[in-house]
Amino acid sequence: MKWDKIDNEIEYDWYELRCQLSRDNHLKVSLYGLKNQKNIYYLDFGKVLFCRAIDEGWNLNPYEEKFESDEKQPHIPDGVLWEVTNSNLKNQIKNHYPQPIHHFQILGINFGLDVISENFPIVIQERL
After folding, report:
1. pTM to 2 decimals?
2. So which domain of life are we looking at (predicted)?
3. Residue 10 near residue 41 (C-beta atoms within 8 A)
């Protein structure tokens, strides 16, 4: 597996996550900064194929086995939003879904999220 950091526009902080998933699977994630409370971001994934809460990192994620690469597992200080390539979860879904998909992991201080989506999320910063 490989992690690609894609949150370059999100300022470093420890973020609390809050999620809203509609009946038609439209996912919105709110990021609230704990060190700097002016850091508020929204991730709009649009319609997602899969979403689940996980503990930080892969160690407690039953669908992922130990890393097949030498790349170190990301943690909160490394970033908030990551695209995961070559994960077991993505490969399982890709076998049954014909469109290109992306596997994202969002690391928050309270929990993390696995998200499978066709699109990259739109990152919106709240201006105070």
Report:
1. 0.83
2. Bacteria
3. yes
CB 54 within 8 A of CB 112: yes
Residues 6+ away with beta carbon under 8 Å from 26: 45, 46, 47, 48
Q: What digits encode the pLDDT tens for the residues 22-48? A: 999 999 999 999 999 999 999 999 999
Give residue 31's identity as a one-letter amino acid code. L
Residue 91 CB contacts under 8 Å (≥ 6 apart), including other chains: none
CA distances from 111 to 93, 99, 106, 107 (A): 23, 29, 9, 7
Task: List, in sequence order, every residue forming a beta bridge with 19; answer none if it has no partner.
Answer: 29
User: What per-residue confidence (pLDDT) applies to 77?
Assistant: 65
Q: What is the Cα 123 distance to its own chain's centre?
A: 12
First vs last C-alpha separation in the chain: 38
Q: Over the stretch 53-63, which tens digit does the pLDDT of each residue have? A: 887 554 545 55
20 forms beta bridges with 28
Q: Which of 38, 55, 40, 29 is nearest to 121 (CA)?
A: 29
